[in-house]
Every structure is written in C-alpha cells, then in structure tokens.
Prior knowledge:
Number of strands: 19
Strand order of the largest sheet: 2-1-3-4-5
Strand content: 15-25%
Largest sheet: 5 strands, parallel
Number of domains: 4
Amino acid sequence: MKTIAFHNLGCKVNSYELDVMQQIMREKGYEIVPFDKKADVYVINTCTVTNIADRKSRQMLHRAKQKNPDAVVVAVGCYVQTDLAGAVKDPAIDLAIGNNRKKDIAEILEQYLAEREKNHEAADGEGFCKTGEAADGGWVGKTDNVAEGGEICGGAPDKTLGGMTVLDIAHEKEYEEMQLKTTAEHTRAYIKIQDGCNQFCSYCAIPLARGRVRSRKQEDILKEIRGIVDAGYLEIVLTGIHVSSYGIDFEKADGNAKGADSAKNGGIAKLSQGTSPDAGGKSAGGEKENGAMDYRGVTRLFDLIEEIHKIPGLQRIRISSLEPRIVTPETAKRLAALPKVCPHFHLSLQSGCDATLKRMNRHYTAQQYFESVEALRNAYAPRIPAITTDVIAGFPGETEEEFAETKAFLEKVGFYEMHVFKYSKRKGTRAAVMDGQVPEPVKAQRSDELLELERKQSMEFRSRKLGQVVEVLMEEEKVIGGKNYLLGHTTDYVRVALPLPGDGAKVRPGAGTDAPETVGKKARAGEILRLELLEFLTEDILLGRETDLF
Length: 550
C-alpha cells in the first residue's frame, strides 16, 4: 500500500479542501501517515496570503523532499496558482496542482505516476532528481531535469502534465463540488459554501489565486451537512473565500432560495464590488471603472443559514466571516432569531481610518462598520456577542495620525479578539506599487501596540464570562501545568477547561449511583456540557466545573 502525507497551510477553506483530498486518497487505497514520517507521496496545500505564507509553503515543500528524496512532492493550491513559474523551477516540487483541481488529485497523481514510470523505463532509470542536500533549512537538489525557463528534461514528467493541472482561475465559473464525509476533527466540521472573491482589496492577492465568486448549490450544501450530522458532528463552520458573496452569481432565484426578494424582506444590500489592481481601473471580467459588475446580485447567505438551521441533530452553526456591509438591523435580527447560530461573528475591519480604508478599496467607512457591530449587539441584547476582526498595521501611506485614528477606533468598538498583521507587499496588487511604503520597524512597532490592545480587550471579554453557566462543546484532552483537562468552546468561542478525574476533578457521578463526584463518569469529547466558569486557568482559557444550574 502506498503511503501519503498531507500538510495544510492557510485558511479554513484550505482545511476543508485538505479534508476532502485526504478522504479521496484514503478511498483510493492510500495509507495516510503523519507528515513528519517517511511517505511515498507528500501533498502540501499551500497558501499565499502573505510573503510569510509563501515562504512557509516553500519550506514545507523542501522539508518533504528532504524527508524522502524519492517521494513525489505535490504542491497544491494558492502558491502554485500565483507563482506557477516559481513552482515549476523549484527542484523540490514534482507535481503542481492549482485551485479548482483539488477534487481531481487522485486521477492527476495516477497519471503523473504512470508517465514517470513510462519515462523511467524509456530513460533506463536516468534523468531523475533523486539526490540533494539540505541547506539553510531548505532543499537543494540536482536540477539537471529543469532547463532554463523551467522546462522539464530527462525522465521526470511535466510538473503540470502539459498544463492540465493548473487552470486559468480568472475565467473559471463553475464551483468545484466536493462532498465531505468526515474530518480530522471529531466535533466540528468546516463546510465550504463558495469560492473566489470579487472585492479586489488593493493589498490582497487572493482574487488572483482563487478567481471570481463561484457559489455552491444549496442542495449540495444541505446534503453534505446532513451527512456530517449523521456522522456525529454537532457543530459546523460555514466557510468560503468571501462568504458574504454567497449566491450573488446565481442568475435568478431557484426554488430553494428567496433570491432578490431578500433585499426587501431581509434588508440585504447589494454588495458593492471592487476593481482589480491593473492600471486601467478595470478588473478581470469586464467591470467598469465605477465598480459596476457584469452581473449583480444580493447575498443569499441568510436564506441559506435559515435552511441549514432546520437540519435535525445539528447543534451549532458558525459563520467564518461576515462582510460588514451585509450586517444591518434586519439581518442581525434574522441571525439572532436562530438559536443554533453561535453569537460569535468575525467582521473584517483592516483599518479604523477612513482615508486608509479608501486606499485599501474596502467600500465602507469606520462609522458604517461601527453601525454593523451595534446592529449585532442590539439584536442579541442582553447577551453580548463576541465580535472579532482583522487589522493591518503599516499599510502604505499610513501616517502616525492615521494609525492613532485606527487605534482609537479599535478601543471604541471593543473586540473579543483581533488578528493583527503587518502589511505584506503582494505582487500584482495595487498596494504593492503605492507611494508611502512604511518601514518594517515602524510596522513592527504599530503591530506590537495593537497586539497589546488585543490582549487587554480579550482578557476583559473573558473576565465578563466568570460566574456564568454556559454550554461548552468538549473537544480534546490536554495536559496543562501537569494536570489533565478536557477542553472545549462556548458558543461565543471562549475556551474552557474541565479537570479530568485523577487530578482532583469534580465530575458528575455515574448514572444511578451514589458514587462521590471525584470518581464519577468521565466527560468525553463530543459532548455539550453545562459548566460554571470559575476563574482563569491560563490567560486565554477559563476553568469550568459541571453544574445542574442554568
């Protein structure tokens, strides 16, 4: 039996796609082994959101080849899509597969192996790059099968099999349908509902890697979730490249969606579309300079969530990210009316300064963003939903005054968590050629300031949870400070630890017995328990105990 190892980098969409690729290869008879073990095939699901992500992708590819020089090393996804020439020239990479071809990984790999065997026999075993040595943590192999310009010579097959493994993603219109049956996690499953993005934020290369919005059919989503729930999963996370664009590419309403009527009944505004970073001010696909699209549509995300909410057995629904512009008082009320929807919302901000937001091509002001946050808080009152966000420090042209404005805005909103990134220049984006590039030391200083603010706000949010009795989905066992705990998350994604028996833990007695609490039935991953939150166990984990109170 051939062995195959996988490694994932990047977003929740990548996690979903990796789960499906593992499922496909397992069904083809491959044995999946840990990535740090020797394998016949290594698959690295790459990321290109930042320069660091690019570098990590290359490092993992080189590490795989170093682990087994005779293995087939497969680079998959966004790094391949945005730098195919670099992937082809890299001697650590044997096979390159772009986005929208991941579902075909088994057939592509089989074709590659067949061509390699055929070429190997014809070359009498010569012409392969099988030896090399590690240098600076990377891989330096023989490159006699890679000619100038990246052409493949000798016995090794073309890394793209004649161009069939990497599509022109900008012109792809069909969603790459996959059906997930199980995941590496045992309690939570990511469900991909769309791919691609039409926003073209000036700093972002993701539309170049993922293409335009392609939404998944509602019936396929519901079928997958029903199967996941039947397999024992209690929680799903709806994910995509730009989740809020779900359905805008559907030409007309079908029988399973409310379509354009949602704009009136749910208060959902049409998404303002961005333009690509090319000098002409037009984005791929024919948008005009004013941002008008070849097609227009309203998001059907809320219609979809309401249908998902009806699935029996499903306990929790999370939304990976929301576009601030689609969160209105009306849509916030629609979410709050659905008990299975977790009150934990990620609204990407990037900057709290209007001038910076405009350079970023973000299509909203700080005040409009704040109104979206307030809409959620008002809809959920007296409960306090967890609001998280992303912020970029040191975007081109960001002055000290603009940074101060952003920091003041973050303090005004009061987030549960913030993901802070130093601006990373991405080739092919408008921001990469903007004037006023901020020096790295300044970016680092601003990032540190925001991270300290994030730490303070996050602690404040968790502190307000102390004394509350909450439902926690238990997920995994972990040793903390030499003691065993079962860890899980509340609906608003606060991490909670429950002591396990043998460490002085008080757990519920076995059913129908008078046994003392300390020797009771052990809680298990996959259960939802009612816990009273007592104190901080660590800075980001609260200690809980079981209770009958609620």
